[in-house]
Amino acid sequence: MSRLTDVEFNDLVTTGHQVLSVYPRIPGACVMMSALLVGRLHDLGHASASLVGGELAIGTTVIFGRSAVAGPFSQTDYDWDGHAWVRFGEYIADVSLVMTAYSGKAPRVLARHVARICKATQRLYVATPDAALRVDGLRFTPQHVFSREQIDALYRGAVTQLPES
Question: CB-hemisphere CA count at 13 Å for 165?
């Protein structure tokens, strides 16, 4: 994993905020929102950005996901209980965490925890995995890295969710 340049990091943050400004506020839309973010990063020439699915925990308490994936993630599954985020360089970028936590539909433990570490206006969560765990108490456990074909299909689906301009 290579360290991001200032330009790459700025693209990550700017693009994350763009996704948050255009995607409908739908709690639990982590796969689609993350696919939109990674797709747009790819469009900017950042081919190393990846879409990751897995488990999100607060300390040892699993919030989304389970400790083992039951088979390959081969299609969009609306019953999937895991979490998705973008990995770019040394960073995790989570475009749905704060929105979901403040939605009123999040598990109470997540809502309380995120309220302690993030303001509702922050919306985009960016951290290294180590800082996420040590500083924020969030454990992101990758279980699936989406293929380019999966990302492309999810990206096209996410674009259909955008309001017409």
Answer: 5
15: alpha, beta or left? (left if phi > 0; alpha if psi -120 to 50)? alpha
Structure pTM?
A: 0.90
- DSSP structure class, residue 163: P
Residue bearing tokens 């380019």: 148
Tens of pLDDT, residue by residue over 60-118, are 999 999 765 555 555 445 556 799 999 999 999 999 999 999 999 999 999 999 999 99
- Give the Å distances, CA to CA, from 51 to 6, 35, 88, 107: 21, 6, 9, 23
The four Cα atoms 58, 59, 60, 64 give a dihedral, to 10 degrees, of 20
Distance, in Å, from the CA atom of 68 to the CA atom of 126, rounded to the nearest integer, reads 25
